[in-house]
Amino acid sequence: MADVTVGIVVFPGSNCDHDTEYAIASFPGVKPVMLWHNDHDLKGCDAVILPGGFSYGDYLRCGSIARFSPIMREVIEFARKGRPVLGICNGFQVLVESGLLEGALIRNTGKKFICRQSTIKVVNNGTIFTDGYRKDEVLRIPVAHGEGNYIASPETIESLEEHGQVVFRYTDENGNATEAANFNGSLGNIAGIVNRQGNVLGLMPHPERASEALLGSQDGRRLFESLFRHVTGA
After folding, report:
1. pTM score > 0.85 for this model?
2. pLDDT given for residue 233 in this prediction
3. 215: Cβ contacts below 8 Å, ≥ 6 apart
């Protein structure tokens, strides 16, 4: 794999930035670069990741203050040029607040923070983030969030489904999108979506926490592999 530089945005309150850095650095030829929220420069990165955590203490709404960080002006411009941006958990929340992804993320239906293993199905394996998976493949990737309940207008949900923008869906181990599997209450069991252009992905599960056997699953690793393969044109 050719050399790839991946920017990891660090907000006050981020707590998965070094988990993400560790996972990224495990790929040969891939260099993680930490980008502070007050930076105005993406430092020549080939891709950008917004990691999980509690940016700015989740005040007002999750991701609503982070959206106005100086670095986000650069990330938004980067994304609008068609460059790859990945938002994980709080990063997903920041992306919807920034308008880079549609919809919103609100409190889980049970009003409790959920930290557990989840099973999700790959609904669309034709994106730059998921072409290393089989369509309808079921993955084991952990979640840890209090506001992972994805909502959007009926028209938006219909459009997302019609254009293949629903990438991951919460399911049982057999790939069935049941109510029991939908522990946070997301509309349509949605766990992750991509923008219409296909270069911005947000998901609530944590692929960096499922990137090596010691963690109990390597199912998240192929998401990063797919992204890096796309960046290098391999």
Report:
1. yes
2. 80
3. 209
